[in-house]
Design brief:
Helix content: over 70%
Distance between the termini: 79 Å
Largest sheet: none
Protein name: Septum formation initiator
Oligomer: single chain
Order of helices and strands: HH
Strand content: under 5%
Number of domains: 1
Number of helices: 2
Keywords: Coiled coil
Radius of gyration: 32 Å
Number of strands: 0
């Protein structure tokens, strides 16, 4: 009976140590994930700013005049089509 109690105590101790180790790993991974998400949000904001800057620089009327000066035709309407099966 004493042998079973000692083995049972070692099993409980082993499980407890494994649980502590696992919780520490999970906590550190959650911290890394939080930092990565913050970095991702900053990069997305920077990308949005660059897109808005690009759109502000893009002058469609100027492009249209250049194309017409080169003899190209510019359409005001977009003609959509469908492929029938």
């Amino acid at each position: 009976m004493r042998y079973i109690t000692i083995v049972f105590a070692f099993c409980i101790l082993g499980i407890w140590l494994f649980n502590v180790k696992t919780l520490r790993e999970v906590t550190s991974l959650e911290k890394e994930l939080k930092i990565a998400n913050e970095n991702l949000e900053e990069l997305e904001k920077e990308l949005d700013k660059k897109i808005m800057f690009y759109d502000a620089k893009l002058d469609l009327d100027k492009i249209r005049r250049e194309m017409e000066a080169k003899g190209m035709k510019v359409s005001d309407e977009v003609i959509y089509f469908e492929i029938e099966e």
